[in-house]
Amino acid sequence: MNIQRPRQPHYERARVLEIVKPFYKKPAFNAPCMEAQLTKETRKVDNPYEAIVAREARNWFEQSRLVAFLHVNSIRQEDMFKVQVALHRHQVTVKVYGKSIMQKAVEGTKFEPILPLFEAKTALVFGPEERKINQLLSVLKKTPQLVLLAGIVEGRLLSKQELMAYASMPDLTTVRAQFAAVLESAGGKIVSDLQCHQQQLVNLLDAHARGNDAEQAETANGKVADS
């Protein structure tokens, strides 16, 4: 018997062997991982507590006029607590939610585009006023473990550079006062321009009247001297 070159079986036997040859299905790519994921999804059960926390997160988004997103690097809990205390003094709240909770909170709302920011650990900062961004930037300068990613101000999603530019702008009250001063100065200039010709005419008439009075006085004095 030659093992390297075995003899071909008989024709009938070869047909039988071909028919009874077992057929194995080719496994899909990463089949164990896919099966584990499918099993996990089928066993997934909605957690009522997550629904409550998601509702709370949505309320924070809807009621806050300033929302900032911070990427959280490796940081001690003690340092994180100091940041929370420093921001709490300015009436700014720090929250940390998981991706599943944020997906339930913002899915189907105008805040849904922020979901890609939660692929990693991300902290949320909620403020009652837009101008709280100055206090937030001041605290973040002392905490390099927290990186500002983006923010929502006046209903618009802004990048880090846009937030810093917004912080450098004066507040709305100051801008209104400056605008009112410009309007007042422009109005005063218009009034002065309109009254300029009238005032010149009054001055000329006044000077002319004074000249006539002086001539009449000189004439009267001359007549008295002649008499």
UniProtKB/TrEMBL annotation:
Keyword field contains tRNA processing: no
Annotated Gene Ontology cellular component terms: ribonucleoprotein complex; ribosome
Pfam families named among the record's database cross-references: Ribosomal_L10 (PF00466)
Superkingdom of the source species: Eukaryota
Cross-referenced InterPro entries: Ribosomal_uL10, Ribosomal_uL10-like_sf, Ribosomal_uL10_bac_type
UniProt xrefs under SUPFAM superfamilies: Ribosomal protein L10-like
Assembly notes: Component of the mitochondrial ribosome large subunit (39S) which comprises a 16S rRNA and about 50 distinct proteins.
Similarity comment: family membership: Belongs to the universal ribosomal protein uL10 family.
Name of the protein described by the UniProt record: Large ribosomal subunit protein uL10m
